[in-house]
Write a structure and sequence with these properties.
about 230 residues, 4-stranded parallel beta sheet, 3-stranded parallel beta sheet
């Protein structure tokens, strides 16, 4: 999925000067990582997964066009990070929850996800949301500054397209330069820290202790044993 996401963004960037709206299907925008695969795929899986995650998220952060997230439901862990990588975030009213549950799973954040979250979450709420792994309602997400708007589900895509058109009214080169300026602290921090930090992350994620943390979380939340 991450490789396909990276390729899709690259294709859109090369072929079109249009803005992009990203959304999900069903009850979730994205519920994050496939945890059973992380515990079942072994070291080789993690060796491919973590670099793929960094590549896809880097591509999203540096995407020069307007990127609008139409969050149709749950945006959890990696799903929340994808949402936070957008320039403008709309969240459907309803049962969907937003949150960064990595510490509840028992894993530390890879570098790109953490720096995206740091850039997107207001400073006064950042540490608390990371440490507590809180899952918040749409109204709470809006109050915390995680999304720009909450909106009825049936109006979500129409409003997302309208915002995308509004952002696209800015000349493309002007938007791209400004976005690069706004994102430069995030990118510089991630690129500076990733080479050393992600080696530590890989060692942690592949350790038996962390793998057991993940298995325990799976059993508690989705009732599977791996």
């Amino acid at each position: 999925f991450l490789d396909a996401l990276d390729a899709a963004f690259a294709r859109v960037e090369a072929d079109s000067a249009q803005p992009l709206v990203i959304t999900g299907q069903g009850r979730s925008f994205s519920a994050g990582m496939d945890l059973p695969s992380i515990t079942g795929g072994g070291v080789a899986y993690l060796q491919s997964l973590l670099p793929a995650l960094s590549r896809a998220l880097r591509r999203m952060v540096l995407f020069p066009r307007p990127l609008v997230a139409a969050v149709n439901g749950h945006a959890i862990a990696g799903g929340a990070i994808i949402m936070m990588a957008a320039d403008y975030r709309l969240l459907a009213l309803g049962e969907g929850r937003v949150g960064l549950t990595e510490l509840a799973v028992g894993v530390p954040f890879p570098t790109w996800p953490l720096e995206i979250a740091r850039a997107a979450i207001p400073r006064e709420h950042f540490a608390r949301l990371i440490y507590t792994a809180a899952l918040v309602s749409p109204s709470e997400a809006h109050a915390l500054g995680l999304v720009e708007e909450v909106i009825e589900q049936e109006e979500l895509l129409d409003r997302a397209f309208a915002v995308a058109r509004q952002l696209a009214a800015v000349p493309a080169e002007t938007f791209a330069i400004t976005k690069r300026q706004l994102r430069s602290p995030l990118v510089e921090a991630a690129e500076r820290r990733a080479p050393s930090d992600d080696n530590e992350i890989f060692t942690n994620w592949s350790s038996e202790k962390t793998q057991q943390n993940i298995r325990s979380f799976i059993e508690r939340t989705i009732g599977q044993k791996k």
